[in-house]
UniProtKB/TrEMBL annotation:
It holds the Pfam family SPRY. Transmembrane segments: none annotated. Residues 163-349 form the B30.2/SPRY domain. This is B30.2/SPRY domain-containing protein. SUPFAM superfamilies: Concanavalin A-like lectins/glucanases (SSF49899), RING/U-box (SSF57850). PROSITE patterns: B302_SPRY.
Length: 353
Protein backbone atom coordinates (compact mmCIF):
# COMPACT_ATOMS: atom_id res chain seq x y z
CA UNK A 1 0.00 0.00 0.00
CA UNK A 2 0.96 3.66 -0.20
CA UNK A 3 2.60 5.65 2.56
CA UNK A 4 -0.80 6.74 3.91
CA UNK A 5 -1.55 3.15 4.96
CA UNK A 6 0.19 0.39 6.90
CA UNK A 7 2.20 -2.60 5.69
CA UNK A 8 0.66 -5.82 4.35
CA UNK A 9 1.04 -8.53 6.99
CA UNK A 10 2.17 -11.17 4.47
CA UNK A 11 5.40 -9.26 3.84
CA UNK A 12 6.73 -9.76 7.37
CA UNK A 13 9.34 -12.38 8.24
CA UNK A 14 8.96 -12.42 12.03
CA UNK A 15 5.48 -11.08 12.82
CA UNK A 16 2.53 -13.42 13.42
CA UNK A 17 0.58 -11.51 16.08
CA UNK A 18 -1.86 -8.60 15.99
CA UNK A 19 -0.31 -6.22 18.51
CA UNK A 20 0.64 -3.71 15.80
CA UNK A 21 -2.43 -4.18 13.58
CA UNK A 22 -4.07 -0.84 12.83
CA UNK A 23 -7.89 -1.02 13.34
CA UNK A 24 -8.40 1.69 10.72
CA UNK A 25 -6.62 0.17 7.69
CA UNK A 26 -6.27 -3.42 9.02
CA UNK A 27 -2.55 -3.46 8.17
CA UNK A 28 0.58 -3.49 10.30
CA UNK A 29 1.00 0.06 11.55
CA UNK A 30 3.32 2.49 9.79
CA UNK A 31 4.81 5.20 12.07
CA UNK A 32 2.79 3.67 14.94
CA UNK A 33 0.96 5.61 17.63
CA UNK A 34 -1.12 4.30 20.53
CA UNK A 35 -3.97 5.52 22.73
CA UNK A 36 -3.16 6.16 26.40
CA UNK A 37 -6.59 4.90 27.43
CA UNK A 38 -7.31 1.72 25.45
CA UNK A 39 -3.75 0.92 24.29
CA UNK A 40 -4.79 0.37 20.66
CA UNK A 41 -2.00 0.85 18.11
CA UNK A 42 -2.68 2.82 14.93
CA UNK A 43 -0.82 3.90 11.82
CA UNK A 44 0.37 7.45 12.41
CA UNK A 45 -1.11 8.70 9.09
CA UNK A 46 -4.37 6.79 9.64
CA UNK A 47 -5.06 8.09 13.13
CA UNK A 48 -3.97 11.63 12.26
CA UNK A 49 -6.50 11.66 9.44
CA UNK A 50 -9.17 10.18 11.75
CA UNK A 51 -8.58 12.78 14.48
CA UNK A 52 -9.03 15.64 12.03
CA UNK A 53 -12.60 14.43 11.46
CA UNK A 54 -13.65 12.82 14.77
CA UNK A 55 -11.31 14.41 17.37
CA UNK A 56 -11.44 11.30 19.56
CA UNK A 57 -10.07 7.75 19.63
CA UNK A 58 -11.83 5.31 17.29
CA UNK A 59 -12.81 3.30 20.41
CA UNK A 60 -14.61 6.33 21.90
CA UNK A 61 -12.12 6.67 24.74
CA UNK A 62 -12.40 9.54 27.25
CA UNK A 63 -11.72 13.03 25.92
CA UNK A 64 -8.58 13.33 28.08
CA UNK A 65 -6.93 10.30 26.44
CA UNK A 66 -3.79 11.00 24.42
CA UNK A 67 -2.70 9.46 21.13
CA UNK A 68 1.04 9.67 20.64
CA UNK A 69 4.11 7.64 19.62
CA UNK A 70 4.13 4.11 21.03
CA UNK A 71 5.82 3.42 24.36
CA UNK A 72 9.53 2.55 24.46
CA UNK A 73 8.87 -1.08 25.36
CA UNK A 74 6.65 -1.51 22.28
CA UNK A 75 9.00 0.56 20.13
CA UNK A 76 11.84 -1.87 20.82
CA UNK A 77 9.70 -4.81 19.66
CA UNK A 78 8.45 -2.88 16.64
CA UNK A 79 11.97 -1.89 15.54
CA UNK A 80 12.99 -5.58 15.51
CA UNK A 81 10.34 -6.46 12.91
CA UNK A 82 11.67 -7.50 9.51
CA UNK A 83 9.73 -6.91 6.31
CA UNK A 84 10.45 -7.95 2.72
CA UNK A 85 11.01 -5.37 0.01
CA UNK A 86 8.11 -5.41 -2.44
CA UNK A 87 10.57 -5.16 -5.35
CA UNK A 88 13.56 -7.42 -4.56
CA UNK A 89 11.89 -9.43 -1.70
CA UNK A 90 14.96 -9.11 0.53
CA UNK A 91 14.14 -8.62 4.25
CA UNK A 92 15.00 -5.37 6.05
CA UNK A 93 14.33 -3.84 9.43
CA UNK A 94 11.03 -1.99 9.33
CA UNK A 95 12.70 1.38 9.97
CA UNK A 96 14.88 0.91 6.86
CA UNK A 97 12.30 -0.38 4.38
CA UNK A 98 10.99 2.95 3.01
CA UNK A 99 14.49 4.20 2.26
CA UNK A 100 15.49 0.89 0.66
CA UNK A 101 12.39 0.61 -1.53
CA UNK A 102 12.77 4.15 -2.81
CA UNK A 103 16.28 3.25 -3.97
CA UNK A 104 15.40 -0.30 -5.06
CA UNK A 105 12.81 0.74 -7.65
CA UNK A 106 15.08 3.27 -9.36
CA UNK A 107 16.84 2.38 -12.63
CA UNK A 108 20.30 1.00 -11.91
CA UNK A 109 23.64 1.62 -13.59
CA UNK A 110 24.82 -1.32 -15.72
CA UNK A 111 27.73 -1.65 -13.29
CA UNK A 112 25.60 -1.30 -10.16
CA UNK A 113 27.32 -4.28 -8.53
CA UNK A 114 30.57 -2.29 -8.69
CA UNK A 115 29.59 1.39 -8.31
CA UNK A 116 26.32 1.04 -6.39
CA UNK A 117 24.77 4.00 -8.24
CA UNK A 118 21.38 4.53 -9.83
CA UNK A 119 21.01 6.12 -13.25
CA UNK A 120 20.87 9.91 -13.23
CA UNK A 121 19.35 12.30 -15.73
CA UNK A 122 22.65 13.18 -17.42
CA UNK A 123 24.52 12.58 -20.67
CA UNK A 124 25.31 8.98 -19.67
CA UNK A 125 21.69 7.92 -19.11
CA UNK A 126 21.20 6.63 -22.67
CA UNK A 127 24.20 4.31 -22.24
CA UNK A 128 22.60 2.99 -19.02
CA UNK A 129 25.61 4.01 -16.91
CA UNK A 130 25.95 6.58 -14.16
CA UNK A 131 29.13 8.40 -15.15
CA UNK A 132 32.20 8.41 -17.39
CA UNK A 133 34.09 5.87 -15.30
CA UNK A 134 31.27 3.33 -15.66
CA UNK A 135 31.00 4.09 -19.37
CA UNK A 136 34.67 3.17 -19.75
CA UNK A 137 34.17 0.04 -17.65
CA UNK A 138 31.25 -1.06 -19.83
CA UNK A 139 33.33 -0.60 -22.98
CA UNK A 140 36.20 -2.57 -21.47
CA UNK A 141 33.83 -5.43 -20.69
CA UNK A 142 32.89 -5.56 -24.37
CA UNK A 143 36.50 -5.91 -25.59
CA UNK A 144 37.46 -9.34 -26.91
CA UNK A 145 41.23 -9.08 -27.09
CA UNK A 146 44.19 -6.91 -26.12
CA UNK A 147 43.97 -4.89 -29.32
CA UNK A 148 40.36 -3.91 -28.58
CA UNK A 149 41.32 -3.04 -25.03
CA UNK A 150 44.22 -0.91 -26.22
CA UNK A 151 42.01 0.93 -28.71
CA UNK A 152 39.38 1.54 -26.02
CA UNK A 153 41.89 3.00 -23.56
CA UNK A 154 43.62 5.03 -26.28
CA UNK A 155 40.33 6.63 -27.26
CA UNK A 156 39.55 7.39 -23.62
CA UNK A 157 42.94 9.08 -23.11
CA UNK A 158 42.44 11.04 -26.33
CA UNK A 159 39.05 12.30 -25.18
CA UNK A 160 40.53 13.41 -21.86
CA UNK A 161 43.74 14.96 -23.32
CA UNK A 162 44.14 18.68 -22.49
CA UNK A 163 44.36 21.25 -25.29
CA UNK A 164 47.95 22.12 -26.26
CA UNK A 165 48.99 25.23 -28.11
CA UNK A 166 52.34 26.40 -29.48
CA UNK A 167 53.82 29.48 -27.85
CA UNK A 168 55.65 32.16 -29.84
CA UNK A 169 58.86 30.72 -28.44
CA UNK A 170 58.16 27.25 -29.89
CA UNK A 171 57.75 25.63 -26.49
CA UNK A 172 54.92 23.14 -26.09
CA UNK A 173 53.03 24.60 -23.16
CA UNK A 174 49.60 23.41 -22.02
CA UNK A 175 47.09 26.16 -22.67
CA UNK A 176 45.44 27.68 -19.64
CA UNK A 177 41.85 26.60 -20.12
CA UNK A 178 38.97 28.75 -19.04
CA UNK A 179 37.53 27.78 -15.69
CA UNK A 180 34.63 25.42 -16.15
CA UNK A 181 31.26 26.35 -14.74
CA UNK A 182 29.24 23.12 -14.64
CA UNK A 183 25.67 23.23 -15.92
CA UNK A 184 23.27 20.85 -14.21
CA UNK A 185 19.62 20.45 -13.23
CA UNK A 186 17.38 18.70 -10.73
CA UNK A 187 17.49 14.91 -10.75
CA UNK A 188 14.12 13.30 -11.54
CA UNK A 189 15.34 10.05 -10.00
CA UNK A 190 16.13 11.67 -6.67
CA UNK A 191 13.16 13.69 -5.47
CA UNK A 192 10.40 13.51 -2.90
CA UNK A 193 6.81 12.57 -3.68
CA UNK A 194 4.72 15.21 -5.43
CA UNK A 195 7.52 17.44 -6.73
CA UNK A 196 6.93 18.56 -10.33
CA UNK A 197 9.55 19.64 -12.87
CA UNK A 198 9.57 22.28 -15.63
CA UNK A 199 11.84 24.54 -17.69
CA UNK A 200 14.28 21.77 -18.61
CA UNK A 201 14.21 20.31 -15.09
CA UNK A 202 15.68 23.51 -13.62
CA UNK A 203 12.38 24.47 -11.94
CA UNK A 204 10.67 22.42 -9.26
CA UNK A 205 7.43 22.98 -7.36
CA UNK A 206 5.51 21.18 -4.64
CA UNK A 207 1.84 21.72 -3.78
CA UNK A 208 0.09 19.26 -1.49
CA UNK A 209 -2.13 19.06 1.58
CA UNK A 210 0.53 17.52 3.81
CA UNK A 211 3.09 19.59 5.70
CA UNK A 212 6.10 17.37 5.12
CA UNK A 213 9.46 18.38 3.69
CA UNK A 214 10.33 16.78 0.34
CA UNK A 215 13.90 16.90 -0.98
CA UNK A 216 15.24 17.30 -4.51
CA UNK A 217 18.90 16.66 -5.40
CA UNK A 218 20.86 17.96 -8.37
CA UNK A 219 22.28 15.71 -11.07
CA UNK A 220 25.82 16.95 -10.43
CA UNK A 221 28.10 16.22 -7.49
CA UNK A 222 31.11 18.45 -6.83
CA UNK A 223 34.35 16.53 -6.31
CA UNK A 224 36.86 19.32 -5.61
CA UNK A 225 37.55 23.02 -5.87
CA UNK A 226 34.89 25.73 -5.63
CA UNK A 227 31.31 25.32 -6.78
CA UNK A 228 28.72 28.05 -7.22
CA UNK A 229 25.02 28.01 -8.11
CA UNK A 230 21.92 30.08 -7.46
CA UNK A 231 18.40 29.42 -6.26
CA UNK A 232 15.77 31.79 -7.64
CA UNK A 233 12.61 32.11 -5.56
CA UNK A 234 9.19 31.23 -6.97
CA UNK A 235 6.54 33.89 -6.33
CA UNK A 236 3.93 31.19 -5.61
CA UNK A 237 5.91 29.87 -2.63
CA UNK A 238 4.06 29.91 0.68
CA UNK A 239 6.56 28.07 2.91
CA UNK A 240 10.29 28.70 3.36
CA UNK A 241 12.80 26.36 1.70
CA UNK A 242 15.85 24.59 3.10
CA UNK A 243 18.77 25.08 0.70
CA UNK A 244 22.25 23.63 0.80
CA UNK A 245 24.23 20.46 0.11
CA UNK A 246 24.21 16.74 0.82
CA UNK A 247 27.12 14.30 0.85
CA UNK A 248 24.62 11.44 0.65
CA UNK A 249 22.92 10.63 -2.65
CA UNK A 250 20.55 7.88 -1.55
CA UNK A 251 18.18 8.46 1.40
CA UNK A 252 14.49 9.00 2.07
CA UNK A 253 13.67 12.02 -0.12
CA UNK A 254 10.39 12.49 1.77
CA UNK A 255 12.44 14.12 4.50
CA UNK A 256 14.61 17.21 4.65
CA UNK A 257 18.20 16.34 3.73
CA UNK A 258 19.52 18.54 6.55
CA UNK A 259 17.69 16.46 9.16
CA UNK A 260 20.72 14.19 8.93
CA UNK A 261 24.47 14.48 9.55
CA UNK A 262 25.13 14.37 5.80
CA UNK A 263 23.13 17.57 5.09
CA UNK A 264 23.93 21.26 5.59
CA UNK A 265 21.28 23.90 4.86
CA UNK A 266 20.25 27.52 5.08
CA UNK A 267 16.58 27.71 6.12
CA UNK A 268 14.57 30.60 4.66
CA UNK A 269 13.49 31.64 8.16
CA UNK A 270 17.02 33.10 8.52
CA UNK A 271 18.28 30.02 10.33
CA UNK A 272 20.66 27.10 9.75
CA UNK A 273 19.87 23.39 9.87
CA UNK A 274 22.37 20.53 10.16
CA UNK A 275 21.58 17.11 11.63
CA UNK A 276 18.35 18.51 13.10
CA UNK A 277 14.74 18.96 11.98
CA UNK A 278 13.83 21.46 14.68
CA UNK A 279 16.61 23.78 15.82
CA UNK A 280 19.55 25.73 14.46
CA UNK A 281 21.35 29.05 14.90
CA UNK A 282 20.18 32.31 13.32
CA UNK A 283 21.85 33.22 10.04
CA UNK A 284 21.48 35.92 7.39
CA UNK A 285 18.14 37.28 6.21
CA UNK A 286 14.78 35.69 5.39
CA UNK A 287 14.16 34.25 1.92
CA UNK A 288 10.91 32.85 0.55
CA UNK A 289 9.08 34.08 -2.56
CA UNK A 290 11.35 36.66 -4.15
CA UNK A 291 15.06 37.18 -4.67
CA UNK A 292 18.07 35.05 -5.62
CA UNK A 293 20.09 33.04 -3.13
CA UNK A 294 23.72 32.40 -4.08
CA UNK A 295 25.41 29.24 -2.78
CA UNK A 296 29.20 28.84 -2.69
CA UNK A 297 30.77 25.51 -1.75
CA UNK A 298 34.52 25.79 -1.22
CA UNK A 299 35.92 22.27 -0.92
CA UNK A 300 39.45 23.61 -0.52
CA UNK A 301 38.55 25.18 2.83
CA UNK A 302 35.51 23.05 3.72
CA UNK A 303 33.16 26.02 3.86
CA UNK A 304 29.61 26.74 2.71
CA UNK A 305 28.63 30.38 2.16
CA UNK A 306 25.43 32.11 1.07
CA UNK A 307 24.48 35.44 -0.49
CA UNK A 308 21.10 37.07 -1.00
CA UNK A 309 20.48 39.35 -3.97
CA UNK A 310 24.22 39.88 -4.39
CA UNK A 311 24.95 40.66 -0.73
CA UNK A 312 27.16 38.21 1.17
CA UNK A 313 25.39 36.79 4.23
CA UNK A 314 28.55 35.08 5.47
CA UNK A 315 29.99 31.64 6.13
CA UNK A 316 27.27 29.30 7.31
CA UNK A 317 29.41 26.20 7.87
CA UNK A 318 33.04 25.17 8.20
CA UNK A 319 33.37 21.39 8.27
CA UNK A 320 36.08 18.92 7.24
CA UNK A 321 33.37 16.76 5.65
CA UNK A 322 32.76 19.53 3.12
CA UNK A 323 36.22 18.88 1.67
CA UNK A 324 35.37 15.42 0.38
CA UNK A 325 33.14 14.80 -2.64
CA UNK A 326 30.90 14.08 -4.21
CA UNK A 327 28.73 16.80 -2.69
CA UNK A 328 25.30 17.45 -4.24
CA UNK A 329 23.27 20.68 -4.27
CA UNK A 330 19.94 20.06 -2.53
CA UNK A 331 16.66 21.78 -1.71
CA UNK A 332 13.81 20.73 0.58
CA UNK A 333 10.28 22.01 -0.14
CA UNK A 334 7.32 22.18 2.25
CA UNK A 335 3.57 22.12 1.43
CA UNK A 336 3.52 24.83 -1.26
CA UNK A 337 6.94 25.92 -2.46
CA UNK A 338 9.25 25.98 -5.44
CA UNK A 339 12.39 27.45 -6.96
CA UNK A 340 14.60 27.61 -10.04
CA UNK A 341 18.15 26.27 -10.19
CA UNK A 342 20.62 28.56 -12.01
CA UNK A 343 24.03 27.13 -12.93
CA UNK A 344 26.94 27.75 -15.29
CA UNK A 345 27.79 31.18 -13.83
CA UNK A 346 31.24 32.36 -12.69
CA UNK A 347 31.97 32.80 -9.01
CA UNK A 348 30.92 36.31 -7.84
CA UNK A 349 33.68 38.49 -6.43
CA UNK A 350 31.98 38.63 -3.01
CA UNK A 351 32.95 34.97 -2.53
CA UNK A 352 36.54 35.48 -3.69
CA UNK A 353 37.54 37.59 -0.70
Amino acid sequence: MGEEFGFDKERFVNYNQDIFDCPICSCVARLPKDCSACGSVFCGPCVDSWLKKQQECINRCPKNSVIQGIQKSLKKIYDDLEIRCQFCTKPFKIAEIDKHEMNCQMPKCTNYDVCGNNLGTNEFEKQKVCDQACLLLSRIKQTKNKQDLYSCLKQYVKDKKPIIQISPYNFNIPAVQNQEYPVFKWDRQRMGTGITFSDGDTKIFLKEQAYMFRTALATYGFEKGIGYWEIEADEKTENELKIGVSTQREFNYNTAFCDFEFGWAYYGLAQLRHNSNATGPSFGRRFKKDGILGVCLNMNTGTLKFSLNGDLMGTAYTDEKLKHGPIYPAVSLLHCAGCKLITGKPLPTIFQI
